[in-house]
TrEMBL record:
It is an enzyme of class 2 (transferase). A motif (RDXXRA motif of the pArg binding pocket involved in allosteric regulation) lies at residues 337-342. Its EC number is 2.7.14.1. This is Protein-arginine kinase. One of its GO terms (cellular component) is extracellular space. Appears to be allosterically activated by the binding of pArg-containing polypeptides to the pArg-binding pocket localized in the C-terminal domain of McsB. The gene is mcsB. Belongs to the ATP:guanido phosphotransferase family. Pfam families: ATP-gua_Ptrans (PF00217). Catalyzes the specific phosphorylation of arginine residues in a large number of proteins. Is part of the bacterial stress response system. Protein arginine phosphorylation has a physiologically important role and is involved in the regulation of many critical cellular processes, such as protein homeostasis, motility, competence, and stringent and stress responses, by regulating gene expression and protein activity.
Length: 356
């Protein structure tokens, strides 16, 4: 493996697999925050200490993750800004890891379903990704990797408070469980503004596609836990799982209502968006995300039969600014990106139609 291998493909191989409720739930993620004992946290450590941690973790990880296969250890200081952005757009690293500090790194599995970030907000952040709604399965894998690392490293742990982290909101389990959901019907029927406050009252948070502070492009939302202290990992996952299943039911109900009361208008919306994607010569990222969301809804409802749902997942990443420029061979002016984005979408949809 090499860095180029992770930059060349828009969709990770795990994304091509179907998971439970994959018409609404795009992915499940479990992230564990850990810090090394007797070292200052990344918010306070010196460059010397940061490099010591980097070397220590690299030596521990090597190129394998126990029974989970080989890992590629990549230092952020050896990447160009565009390359780091691509990894962020693929959700393999966080926005925090793409800054200019130069002390970060990431270890990635071949399927890109495992990502171990080093010197982000915490010394170590373990991330496991699964298609569809698979919170318990993702937690089991993350715990296995956590146990494997803890057998080699001394983590900062307090008997009463649990795992110690840079941000107080992560103290305890150090776990963030999140589910990425496609909720176009709840947006069209204007129910999402009512649902979000109700979710927040349950100790969960709703964010955009790239987490805190990001936009919900293409009607895609992240639902995750806020509480990490005083609850077990299993309880957090179970609570989130229950809420997500309720949101799935509401989205399904909203879709059924739209088909029943506004079928021709919904079908028209879907095929207008498909027409834009198949014929546009210039398209901005927000419009592309909106059209891709409409087309995916059309696929899920059976209006469109000759396009795979996975193609839409791929295009959601391929049309992001970083990947678009990486794929084109270098930086592009915003106007050039809009032209290139339209061309990529047209070409990809033509290839899909030929193969169907």
């Amino acid at each position: 493996m090499s860095l180029e291998r992770f930059l060349s493909q828009a969709s990770s191989s795990w994304m091509s697999e179907d998971g439970p409720n994959s018409d609404i739930v795009l992915s499940t993620r479990i992230r564990l925050a850990r810090n090394l004992n007797q070292y200052l946290f990344p918010t306070l450590f010196s460059p010397e200490e940061a490099n010591m941690i980097l070397e220590k973790v690299e030596g521990c990880i090597g190129d394998e993750a126990g029974e989970h296969g080989n890992l590629e250890f990549l230092k952020m200081s050896e990447m160009q800004p565009l390359q780091k952005r691509v990894l962020m757009e693929k959700h393999l690293v966080s926005p925090n890891l793409t800054d200019e500090s130069g002390y970060g790194a990431v270890a990635l599995s071949e399927k890109e379903d495992i990502s171990i970030m080093v010197n982000e907000e915490d010394h170590i952040r373990i991330q496991c990704l699964f298609p569809g709604l698979q919170l318990h399965e993702a937690l089991e894998k993350a715990d296995d990797i956590d146990d494997w690392l803890e057998s080699k490293l001394d983590f900062a742990f307090h008997e009463k408070n649990g795992y110690l982290t840079s941000c107080p909101t992560n103290v305890g389990t150090g776990m963030r469980a999140s589910v990425m959901m496609h909720l176009p019907a709840l947006i069209i029927t204007q129910q999402m503004n009512r649902i979000i406050p109700a979710i927040n009252q349950l100790g969960l948070v709703v964010r955009g596609i790239y987490g805190e502070g990001s936009e919900a492009l293409g009607n895609i939302f992240q639902i995750s836990n806020q509480i990490t202290l005083g609850k077990s990992e299993e309880d957090i996952v179970e609570d989130l799982n229950g809420v997500v299943k309720q949101i799935i039911a509401q989205e399904q109900s909203a879709r059924e209502a739209l088909v029943k009361t506004s079928n021709i208008q919904l079908e028209d919306r879907v095929f207008r968006s498909l027409g834009v994607l198949e014929n546009c010569r210039v398209i901005e990222s927000k419009e592309a995300a909106k059209c891709l969301s409409d087309v995916r809804l059309g696929i899920d409802l059976g209006y469109i039969e000759n396009i795979s749902r996975n193609i839409l997942n791929e295009l959601m990443i391929l049309t992001q600014p970083g990947f678009l420029q990486q794929y084109s061979g270098g930086p592009l002016h915003p106007d050039e990106r809009d032209i290139r984005r339209a061309a990529f979408i047209r070409e990809r949809l033509k290839l899909e139609n030929r193969s169907s």
